[in-house]
Structure formats: C-alpha cells, structure tokens
Amino acid sequence: MINYSNEELLNGILRNDNVILQHIYKNYYYKVNLYINKNSGNDDDANDIFQEAIIVVYRKLKANDLVINCAFETYLYSVCKFLWLKQLNKQKSEKEMMVDSTMVETEFDHDFSELVEKNDRFKLYQKHFQLLGSDCQKLLQLFFDKVPLKQIAQIMGFSSEKYVKKRKYKCKEYLVTSIKQDVGYKKMSQ
Description:
The protein is 72% helix and 0% strand. With 190 residues, it is an all-alpha fold. It folds into two domains: 6-109, RNA polymerase sigma factor, region 2, helix turn helix motif (Rna Polymerase Sigma Factor, Chain: A); 125-189, Orthogonal Bundle (Arc Repressor Mutant, subunit A), CATH 1.10.10.
C-alpha cells in the first residue's frame, strides 16, 4: 500500500486526481461507513456524507483556508462525523445518536460550521438555478462570469444592453423568489 503524505492527498483532491481519490475511498471510507451504520445511518448515508466531506475539504483548499495539524485520515473522519451529527440533528434524531468516544477528536475552527452552511446554501442555489429556463441560466452564467453587457447582448441575440439588464433582473428575481419559497431556505432562515 502506498502511503501518501497529507500534502499529496490534499493536492490530489485539489487537482481532482482519480488515483488519489480512489486511494482515499479505498483506505478511509470503511471507517466512516462503520461509524454511520452504527449511528442510525446506512450505506447510502455514509456515501453521501463521505462525498460531502471531500467537497468541504476541496472548498476549503480552494479558499486557501485549510490547516491540518493531524493525519489527513483523522481530519477527514472528523469532518464526516461533524456532517453526520449535523444531519442527525436536522432529522431530530438526537436521542438515537451515539458518540464514539474511542476516536481521536480534532479541533475545528469556528469557520467550519459556517462553511457547511455555505455548502447547504450553494446546493439550494444550484437546485433552483437548474430549474430556470436555459436562456435565464445562460444569461445569468454570462453575467456571473463578468462578461460585458454588450458581449452578452451579442451572444444572446438581444437588441441592446438595456434589454440584457432587464432580462437579467427578471431572471434573477425569479431565481430569488423560487429559492425563498423552498422549504430548505425557510429552515435555514430560522
């Protein structure tokens, strides 16, 4: 078995390196799966949590906001455990939770739960963005990519920059309204 350093594993996640990702799944997933199955979950839950943890690590790396002062395996396990406990809490299943006190805990900075919240908000945004019509999606994506209004008008076949602004406003308004009506958004706002 190849032993990768923390730096090699983190760089592999950042590069979306299949060899590194397979190594991580092969060597670290079983422990997360065991923990979640012991604590009111199943294999599907474990898979979802593990994938979400990898995404959280990736986002923290992208934001240049990740400092690990323990083994990568310990850090990843702790992220998974944090996400699972948060999930159980969401499901109001606190009385069924069992804390495995034999595992080494790591200290999370207070920004971690904020990052998980951002992750939830981003998933909600993506869900509703996908429900927009293709023209609205394309228009908003061009706007988010900071393409000049004149160029957006040409790409979209609109008559003027003024019309681009009007359409962008309507698409954005529709997206915001759609998100605010979502049950998930209402839960986040409480």
